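Field reference: "sequence" (input) and "structure" (output). Example, FAD-binding domain-containing protein:
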Amino acid sequence: MLPLELDNETGILAYIGHRIQSCLPKELFDQLLDIQVDSLPPGPDDVLPIFNGESGDLINAMPTPYALRLPRSKLQKLLTTGIEIHYSKRIREIESNRNSATATFEDGSKETANLIIGADGARSMVRQVLLGPQKAALQMSPLLASTCLAKLPVESARLLAEKHPRLNLTIHPARTILWICVHAKYNDTKPGDGVYTFIMSWVSDRDPKELQGAAILSDMKERATQFAHPFKQIVLSIPDDTVCSHNRLSYWPTEPWDNRNGTVTLAGDAAHPMTFHRGQGLNNAIDDAAQLVQQLQGLTDRTSHQEITAAINRYDEEVQQRGREAVESSLENSLMLHDWDRIMQAAILTRGMQKDAVH
Ligand SMILES: Cc1cc2nc3c(=O)[nH]c(=O)nc-3n(C[C@H](O)[C@H](O)[C@H](O)COP(=O)(O)OP(=O)(O)OC[C@H]3O[C@@H](n4cnc5c(N)ncnc54)[C@H](O)[C@@H]3O)c2cc1C
């Protein structure tokens, strides 16, 4: 489960050359380009345009060289090629005798292995086993977010494409962020045929349960009225029957866990659930996989439990340090994006003000 509960289809930004290459056989890595949400080839000049929500001006074009935007379902299909997966099994508990660990599933079945890797997401059950429910509990940020996937009328799709063919981040001085990006738009798509992801986030201490059902989109539209053209028009044109979700963003500052003598560890959001604005969750999960592969490939005797324990200790140490830094800097970045004065200082210092759209 994600810190913000989203349709499982939400796209993800990853970076070519980032350690994903070392985790995948060449024939699978070569297919990454084919599963992007659109037909934009990644390049050295890729940018994320950041707009002032009040004036509509471009604040900054943040370099995102060689960015890939991948749909979750297609990425998952690619990454699981040739791997035997047992779906619909929920892990209930784990026991370790310090040489091997046994997972018990909700259907009563059990699996024993010399290493169990808990990659069960932000609300990880395995993390709770290793640290106890209190220490493993997610912490709540001051940010609420609403999100949806929607088709747009042709005119809105055109307005959006004029700003950037794929994505944009719009920051309103009233501490509201609007993220819009292409969710699915392949070669033959005409304007208006594509599907877009909308995420709006803001600072609030209100209970997220106060907004449910159709009220979520009404609230997004109400917030959009303070935005400049064309962002206001684009959000207002989201079809009224679009299903939205609403949540408080959460995170967990990674802490060392007891890996039960190298028999149980964590990876991905289970190890470092973070707020999403920096787009680092998947990238860190890929780093975990690459780090684990590196440690296990370094074993001289794959049957030696002593060697495996030492490798998992090294893996844990690296993941815990990198994970904590990523969680903390993601939270810091999310908070900064909702603080207009800090944004302006950062943007003006780094790039100055620019007015035009970027492509
Ligand atoms: C809005 C948003 C935008 C994002 N954008 C980006 C981005 O641009 N770039 C980026 O790098 N990251 C991004 N992320 C973060 C990224 O989505 C996550 O970091 C990534 O999905 C983590 O993968 P994971 O496999 O660790 O966890 P998940 O994707 O959450 O998968 C966990 C899996 O474990 C299963 N599971 C849970 N509990 C159990 C159990 N008890 N037993 C068995 N299975 C279980 C779940 O069903 C799920 O299949 C974004 C996140 C959000 C919310």
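The radius of gyration is 22 Å.
The chain has two domains: 11-73+140-251, 89-138+259-330.
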